[in-house]
Amino acid sequence: MYRHLLVPIERSDACVEAIGHASELARSLGARITFFCPEAGANDDAAQYRQAASLLARAEAAARAQGVPASVLAALGGATSEGGGQAAREYDLVCIAHGGAVPPVPGVAVLVCPRDARPMVAKALGALLDVHRTRSDAYDDVLRTPRPDARAIERLREAHGEEHALMTALRERTSSLDAELDELARLAGREADMLARVAKSVMNDEPVDHTLHACAQFAWERMGRIEGVVLPAARRYLRDEDWSALADNTR
After folding, report:
1. Could you tell me the residue range of the domain that residue 57 belongs to?
2. Which among 137, 167, 183, 229 is placed 20 to 30 Å from 126, CA to CA?
3. pTM confidence score
4. Backbone torsions φ then ψ of 208, nearest 5 degrees
């Protein structure tokens, strides 16, 4: 039986789907997951490191929302977020996205996670994941700016209809996600309140670093939980007509 899954993370829709599959598999097996970003240690690009940090934070939140113990590696063979070394021999299954590259872990079984091939699903979820990537990039921009301006903060406060439409469709098909959707709404409310305080501080020329970092953590956790719990559930519960309606309403 597999006890420790290794999941490489990249910036793609297929990878988000693979995280959901790997998390559900790990939960069914009582296994744990380690995520790593192959590109994180490719060079000394600080922007790439920041982008990898948000990807890994979202993946870790996705797994933990499924009740799966999870940790992250800065690079394969490095130290986990929980401290200590991780030898490659500790992994017994590598889960990769459809079309993804197999990482160099000799002697370890590889599972290629399937993709939902329905065009309307790809279109609807692609639009939502584009929003997540754009939002993560926006946070990255303000976090690396010594004095973010009011316009940058306002962009973070913009509402996005893709998440609301998906969650509304899910609530109409099942009540099994109500607790998770309520928690996501609470996290969104906390983030909105904190961003309002940030906007006020920016107007008053006050420091905002600590609050902005907290906002980013809330945003990454919420997006990760959507990607790891809500999207797999949507694929199970929503019908083709639901996906068609969601796809028709994408921007």
Report:
1. 4-112
2. 183
3. 0.86
4. -130, 5
